[in-house]
Write a structure and sequence with these properties.
By secondary structure, the chain is mainly alpha-helical. Helix content is 72%, strand content 0%.
């Protein structure tokens, strides 16, 4: 069985050109989509559905910076213990606490927008460092620490999204 990168004809790397992934995904989908097998036998339709499911899963994984990094670490035999290893450097945890305080104080879309910009810059920086560790230095152990940080930031992004929803759904004050 091919790994996700091989499935799409891509070189295993963290720094991935998403346009190439998108193109390969569309090409494969056009060949295996269940609609193409509507008049085929049961076995062919089932195979098409299974392959479509595998391709969709691989695509979602490679498209996500966190999932792609975790997958690359796995391919390189690194068990980062993401579920059990939650220790983080004190300075990073302090930064997270400060961001959460700002989120709690954010009372409008503009404040959330500033937090989102800060978050995007931090994520971009960490993603570049992950690419350097995995693709440049082949240092998966250092990369796993960075991936855990990126996971924290992803969760914070979800909290910002939830805060947007709260602000957008609350009734206008009169």
């Amino acid at each position: 069985m091919k790994n996700h990168f091989e499935l799409f004809g891509l070189t295993p790397a963290y720094a991935l050109e998403l346009v190439h992934l998108e193109r390969a995904y569309r090409d494969i989908q056009s060949q295996i989509h269940p609609d193409r097998y509507a008049h085929a036998g049961d076995a062919e339709r089932r195979a098409s559905m299974q392959m479509t499911t595998q391709v969709n899963e691989a695509y979602r994984m490679l498209r996500s910076p966190v999932q792609r990094a975790k997958y690359l670490l796995e391919l390189n035999g690194v068990d980062a213990g993401f579920e059990t290893n939650t220790a983080m450097p004190a300075d990073f945890l302090l930064q997270q606490m400060e961001l959460r305080e700002k989120l709690e104080q954010a009372c409008d879309v503009a404040a959330l927008g500033l937090l989102q910009k800060t978050l995007a810059a931090e994520k971009k920086s960490i993603e570049a460092r992950i690419a350097e560790c995995i693709d440049g230095r082949h240092d998966c152990n250092s990369a796993s620490d960075l991936v855990r940080k990126l996971m924290f930031l992803e969760r914070f992004g979800e909290e910002i999204d939830a805060a947007y929803e709260v602000i957008e759904t609350r009734s206008p004050e009169v």
